[in-house]
From TrEMBL:
Domain of life, per lineage: Bacteria
Gene source species: Streptococcus thermophilus M17PTZA496
InterPro entries per UniProt: PhoU (IPR028366), PhoU-like_sf (IPR038078), PhoU_dom (IPR026022)
Designated name of the protein: Phosphate transporter
Matching SUPFAM superfamilies: PhoU-like
Domain PhoU: 3-83, 118-191
Example of a GO biological process term: negative regulation of phosphate metabolic process
Gene3D superfamilies registered for this protein in UniProt: Phosphate transport system protein phou homolog 2, domain 2
């Protein structure tokens, strides 16, 4: 599962690098990591389903269900990284430009999401309840920031400081990053509930 998480996070990193730099080599990395994510997801899911056919205790069944959920969450992080890279490819091909302010805001959201993802895996590996609490608080801050940025962005659009196309894409990126953080926080919550 940690191996799967590593590829999903590397896909996210390459996806953001592609958005930021526009170099196709990062898009290729996203595709390569997605192949690895899908392969590990398939093997891990098959293995877990085989285990589910064994005689398991109630607690073992809870853990199994929780790990299956976590595998799904990690696979979705990979999918959203791919969606973000595809959006970046569209933006680069169409020559759509973001304002410096919009780019800085997206960089901040990405960095917060990336940190949440990395720390979520640390929570799982180390069974770190203290870090879990900190990550949950940072996730709540990210959700508040997303709402603020959406409002600020609407004002920019209304003032003509941003094109409609860039505006729609900005909101898409915000949505991708915050959803990625949502999936990562699911892992943390499973640790705090003692089912992973």
């Amino acid at each position: 599962m940690v191996h799967l998480a590593s590829y999903a996070i590397q896909s996210l990193e390459a996806s953001y690098a592609f958005f930021d730099k526009g170099d196709e080599k990062y898009f290729d990395k996203v595709e390569k990591h997605e192949t690895a994510v899908n392969s590990i997801d398939e093997e891990l899911t098959t293995y877990l389903i085989e285990i589910s056919n064994e005689l398991l205790s109630v607690y073992e069944n809870e853990i199994l269900a929780s790990v299956l959920d976590s595998v799904r969450d990690l696979e979705r992080i990979g999918d959203l990284a791919v969606a973000s890279a595809n959006l970046s490819q569209h933006i680069h091909n169409k020559g759509i430009e973001f304002s410096g302010t919009a780019k800085a805001e997206l960089e901040d959201v990405y960095n917060r999401t990336h940190r949440i993802d990395l720390d979520s895996i640390r929570v799982v590996v180390d069974d770190d309840k203290v870090l879990a609490g900190q990550v949950i608080l940072r996730h709540e801050e990210l959700k508040k920031l997303e709402k603020q940025l959406r409002m600020i962005h609407t004002k920019r659009l209304n003032n003509g400081e941003c094109t409609v196309q860039a505006g729609i894409n900005y909101v898409d990126y915000l949505s991708y990053y915050t959803r990625i953080a949502d999936y990562a926080i699911n892992l943390v919550e499973k640790v705090t509930e003692g089912v992973i």
